[in-house]
Amino acid sequence: MENEEFDETTKRRAYSDAMKLRRSGLDNETIFARLEKQGIPEQLIMIVLGNMNVEQKKKVAKEINFNYKVAAFKVGAGIVAAIISGVLMPGNTIIPTGLILGGIILAIATNKQENENR
Q: Which residues lie below 8 Å from residue 13, measured CB to CB, with a gap of 6+?
């Protein structure tokens, strides 16, 4: 691709229209066709779609990273509760094991529920 200079109004219009079309649920090919129909240069459309895809991937990666941190916190809380109960009731191993497994199950269940909501 050549590195052409595009005027700012064309760039703004391309990004604005592409974002509106993306929010309406259209895929890249449809967005490309509609922008091309509006007279926006093909190279600019490819740049716009590329940038939009990068931003979307960053957003998804950020959400996944947050989900792992929440899950680790829940499992960690189960482990801490298990240690405390193990110190308070040294002969009982069922309660600490249950707390650890409960933290793991809670983390998995929350992750599945968040994935279904997407």
A: 38, 40
C-beta separation of 17 from 34 below 8 A:
yes
The span from the CA of 51 to the CA of 57, in Å, is: 10
C-alpha 61/C-alpha 41 separation (Å) is 31
pTM, to two decimals: 0.50
User: Residue type at 2?
Assistant: E
Q: Residues 33, 49: contact at Cβ < 8 Å?
A: no
- Count Cβ atoms below 10 Å from residue 48 Cβ, excluding itself: 22
Query: Tens place of pLDDT for every residue, the chain, 118 residues?
Result: 444 577 888 888 898 889 898 888 888 889 889 999 998 888 988 999 988 888 888 887 777 777 777 778 878 887 888 888 888 888 887 888 887 888 788 777 776 766 666 5
Rounded CA-CA distance 118/104 in Å is 22
